[in-house]
Amino acid sequence: MSGFEEKTARRAAEPLELCGAKHVHPELVRKVLESIPDEEELYSLADFFKVFADSTRIRILYVLLCSETCVCDIAQLLGMTQPAISHQLRILKQMDLVKARRDGKTIFYSLADDHIVSILSQGMEHIRE
């Protein structure tokens, strides 16, 4: 069992913490309601994070974190077929996580921007704690 799995199992075994008395803090509720994004934005954010739920896509993103790369090289590095990599790249591109650049007959992929680098770095930092 990995360290992350052990930590998750320990947390799942902890008892739930509930309020001892049921009452609402109206000022807090109002403040949060004014600050929370609308439902459509939250739905889009959930879709964004769903993309990270696939280990193949994470592996592709880590390859692209190291270097701009073509489909052939990604397939070689990950031991997968080019069509399988292309399918995942299409999803990553639709979510604006990667971008493509054509050089002759070859299309090179790279991370879309520094936000993606930050998300990957912070996620890895979090699970390594």
Sequence-ordered SSE layout with sheet pairings:
Layout (H helix, E strand, L loop, with lengths): L2 H11 L12 H10 L3 H13 L3 H12 L2 E2 H8 L3 H13 L3 E6 L2 E6 L2 H15 L1
Antiparallel strand pairs: 1-3, 2-3
Helix pairs in contact: 5-6
Tally of individual domains:
1
- Note the beta-strand portion: 5-15%
What's the level 1 CATH class?
Mainly Alpha
The CATH architecture designation is: Orthogonal Bundle
Q: Which spans of ≥5 residues are poorly predicted at pLDDT below 50?
A: none
Plain-language structure description:
By secondary structure, the protein is mainly alpha-helical. It has a single domain (23-128), classed as Arc Repressor Mutant, subunit A (Orthogonal Bundle), CATH 1.10.10.10. The chain contains 7 helices and 3 strands, in the order ααααβααββα. The protein has helices at 3-13, 26-35, 39-51, 55-66, 71-78, 82-94, 114-128; strands spanning 69-70, 98-103, 106-111. α5 (71-78) packs across α6 (82-94). The model has no long low-confidence stretch (mean pLDDT 92).
Can I get a quick summary?
This protein is mainly α and 129 residues long.
